[in-house]
Amino acid sequence: MHPTDFTLRGAIDALNEGIITSVDLTQAHLDAIAALNPRLNAYITVTGEQALAQARASDARRKEGVAGPLEGVPLAIKDLFCTAGTLTTAGSRILGNFTPPYESTVSANLLRDGAVFLGKANLDEFAMGSSNTTSASGPVENPWSRANDPDTRLVPGGSSGGSAAAVAARLALGATATDTGGSIRQPAAFCGIAGIKPTYGRCSRFGIVAFASSLDQAGPVARTVEDCAILLRSMAGFDPKDSTSADVPVPDFAAACARGVKGLRIGVPKEYRLEGTPPEIEALWEQGLAWLREQGAETVEISLPHTQFALPTYYIVAPAEASSNLARYDGVRFGLRVTEPNSDLRDLYERTRAQGFGAEVRRRILIGTYVLSAGYYDAYYLKAQKIRALIKRDFDEAFGKVDAIVTPATPSAAFGMDEKQDDPVKMYLNDVFTVTANLAGLPGLAVPAGLDAQGLPLGLQVIGRSFDEETVFAVGAAIEQAAGFTALPRLRAGA
Ligand code: GLN
């Protein structure tokens, strides 16, 4: 067995049993990155020497009998998480030279638990996108390809496309990601892996480059549901440095994966039956529900009546917050500065921002500034906030009747790198099944459940009650077990 083929759980066991050292496991991943990253572009920065030093230190700790829950496990870190002393670009030219002096809380928690960092994973610029084609470091390629059209390069999804592609191609055992409107779940589904956006407040946002602060949440992607559960336990927890982080206990999520679904009531929202959804996705959804029934769950049709307003609401709230958050990139305090000999301050701002931000980020700043401007604030932003409250209320009512909700993760399988690039609205439609959980602050997990006719992975989504990730993991693990998803991407280490 190639060392990069371990699951994260399997690697922890192998390390504990002395079957492999962290140095060997880390080196195998660095070799795989050297071989495949030139094609996939999943990593922006590879920190090979630092990773090996961390691995040596980890092996030494283990010898002394000290082993954290992630002792010696090599991971990728989305390049949106600040890592002390390591370039953190957010996929943007404007942060192209930014090396933070501090560590994000989530990555610090992973280091505390013994993890090894292989490098920084590529992403859509400032996490805005669904295809990982807007990064200043270039697009990421999905390691999967269509059976009858292997030459068309596919997107890995976005914005956490580098994280998902790295994990799917076996260039990391797991990765951090963030999800503002679907950026963990959609790339996980496109790459045939699992990923969870936890409840808003479960993970600290401290040290994560902000996109839309009331929606952003960190979470893991990994090749199994249990691996996500193990990673989330380390990532999560109260942090006094983030006033929105929740002071609630962090349960043993991995234990919850084995709970089963007997007696659970699973909601099936009728508004998620969208016209134009490929029949394969409809069929997979039905299949997933049948699997859960076979394992003792009951499926119940529910209604989330404001679902149709979720996308327009998201695409007002998220750009509004983004336009405010991105005001800090002024050429003075962070990153890129563009001046001319006679530049005054205004000229410095304009040149820096015009050259520093890519087209999609500029579009979001324009939309956001517009919806927040005097005269339009009530018509757009305030109305969106009200609808957001109604969407949340829909879920509150549904969770009076059901324990979890199951839907498709995405309205399509991975698409070609050249597709949907001419029409931003088409790109935004990718998020139709995922943005609701962000607007309501709820946990959502994507789990690979099947293949389409082209042999591309398709995922199902499990949405749960606030701070009830345990039920989400139980349902996700039950689907995973029934699906027995063993297909592999064409581009992967050891292939
Ligand atoms: N695709 C969505 C967007 O472009 C979601 C991004 C995200 O979750 N970070 O805004």
From TrEMBL:
Q: Where is the active site?
A: 78, 159, 183
Domain Amidase residues, every copy:
24-472
A Pfam family it matches: Amidase
Q: Does the keyword Phosphoprotein apply?
A: no
Q: What are the EC numbers?
A: 6.3.5.7
Question: What keywords tag this UniProt record?
Answer: ATP-binding, Ligase, Nucleotide-binding, Protein biosynthesis
Which GO molecular function, any one, fits this protein according to its record?
glutaminyl-tRNA synthase (glutamine-hydrolyzing) activity
Question: Record's InterPro entries?
Answer: Amidase, Amidase_CS, Amidase_dom, AS_sf, GatA
Q: Which reaction does it catalyse?
A: L-glutamyl-tRNA(Gln) + L-glutamine + ATP + H2O = L-glutaminyl-tRNA(Gln) + L-glutamate + ADP + phosphate + H(+)
Subunit structure comment from the entry: Heterotrimer of A, B and C subunits.
Its job: Allows the formation of correctly charged Gln-tRNA(Gln) through the transamidation of misacylated Glu-tRNA(Gln) in organisms which lack glutaminyl-tRNA synthetase. The reaction takes place in the presence of glutamine and ATP through an activated gamma-phospho-Glu-tRNA(Gln).
Which HAMAP family does the UniProt entry name for this protein? GatA
Spell out the family assignment given in the record's similarity comment.
Answer: Belongs to the amidase family. GatA subfamily.
Cross-referenced PANTHER family: GLUTAMYL-TRNA(GLN) AMIDOTRANSFERASE SUBUNIT A, TRANSAMIDASE
**What is the protein name stated in its UniProt record?**
Glutamyl-tRNA(Gln) amidotransferase subunit A
